[in-house]
Each structure stands twice: as C-alpha cells, then as structure tokens.
Here is the input.
Amino acid sequence: MSNGMNNNEKSVGEQVSYLLRDELGNCMPIDIWYDGDIWVFRPLGRIDAGHSVDLDTALTEGIDQGMRLIVLDLTDVPYISSSGLRTVIKAAKAVKSDGGRITICGLNDTVREIFKVSGLFNIFREFPTANEAISGIQSNT
Here is the structure.
C-alpha cells in the first residue's frame, strides 16, 4: 500500500486493526484493534470447543504483551460454548491480577442468555457497542 501500512492494517482514526488469522494461519478470524491503551478483540464466528483455543491464544498473547484493558466485542459471535466461557474467564482473571479488566459488548440474545445463566454479568460489564465500552472504560480509568 502506498500509505506505508502493511496489508494486515486498516486505519480507523487512531485505531489499527490486525487480522489475527493472517498472522497465525488457519484459525478463527479475530480482528484486534486499539484505542489508546484499550484493546478490542472481535472474534468472527462461533466460539465453540474448536475455536475457543484460537481465542485463548489471542487473548493470552495480548495479555503477555501487556494488554490490561480489553473489550471483547461479540457482535459477530452467534454462540459461545462452555469452553469459550472458560477462555474469557481465564483471561479476565489474568488481567484482574494486574489491575486490568475485560469488558464485553455486542451480545446477541443467545449469547446474552448464556452469560446470564452462567452468572457472568457479576464479573463482566456489558455495553451495546465497542465504542460505548471504550467510553465506559475511559470514564472509569
């Protein structure tokens, strides 16, 4: 590209998006972008036993690199299994121990019900959109 960005980057104001599938090969596509020190992970597709490993890898690598304020945008996730929930809880525990937090957004009715029945709204704050989640985190920081 003529703007100096590689093919995996898309400029969105001050945000940059990386397509994880291009970096790791054949796995669940996860868009990752940031706004200041807040990172947004947007998985695309079902988070089931097969794909929860991909989300776990992405979140773990991000946390290992110092990401502490994370928005998990589930707009494009029609379903999340118990293994997907475990992945999200594991990541939340990892960032919480270092003063961070994970916020969720974009839940459809099915995913919202799964989080509700699992009692996870006691752990995670929910917002309708990623931008509202980012604003909510910034107002509490």
Notes: The radius of gyration is 14 Å. The chain has one domain: 9-140.
